[in-house]
Amino acid sequence: MTPRVLTADDLAAWRAFRIEALRERPDAFLTTLEQEQARSDQDVLAKLNSDALHGAFDGDVLAGALSIDRMQGDSFHHRAWIHALYVRPAYQGSGLAQTLMTYAVDHAKTLGILQLELYVAADNARAVRFYEKQGFTQQGRLARAVYRNSIFEDDLHYIRLLD
Predict the structure, then answer these.
(1) Which residues, 6 or more positions from 6, have their beta carbon under 8 angstroms from its beta carbon?
(2) Residues 6 or more apart in contact with residue 78 via CB below 8 angstroms
(3) What sign does the CA torsion over 116, 133, 95, 99 have?
(4) What is the residue range of 74's domain?
(5) Total domains in the fold of the chain
(6) Among 16, 74, 106, 154, which has the minimal tally of Cβ within 10 Å of its Cβ?
(7) Given 3-state DSSP classes, what are the helix, strand and coil percentages for the chain, each rounded to the nearest 5?
(8) Does residue 28 carry a pLDDT above 90?
């Protein structure tokens, strides 16, 4: 499976993938299933046309995906956010997350991005280990970053320098 930029042609695959991700791991995303289901195809197409969504297919099945969002503004043009990394359960443990992250780093470099950043839930030990193995270093902790289901959650801020 070779990751690539998702396009408008991937609308149906992306929508099915995203709905599954939010059902399987609602705690891993800030968007709720209800919010995603309420989005119009036009709104989703705008995101697909932004070149921010990337995924890997196994035949017609979108097996894993992530988003690379470059920060806006001249002073921030060297930075991008990695988020919404998800691999379908059938592909977990296959190395696909590693493939997606390697692709994201390589793709970011081709865009002249010098710094990748991400936030991860402080209590998501598996994700923390994964990102640290990918060369991300913790820069800080954002206390009470998320509030859902009457519970505060802390996030950890990670950076990987690409130069």
Answers:
(1) 14, 48, 53, 54, 55, 62, 65
(2) 112, 113, 114, 115
(3) positive
(4) 4-161
(5) 1
(6) 74
(7) 40, 35, 25
(8) no
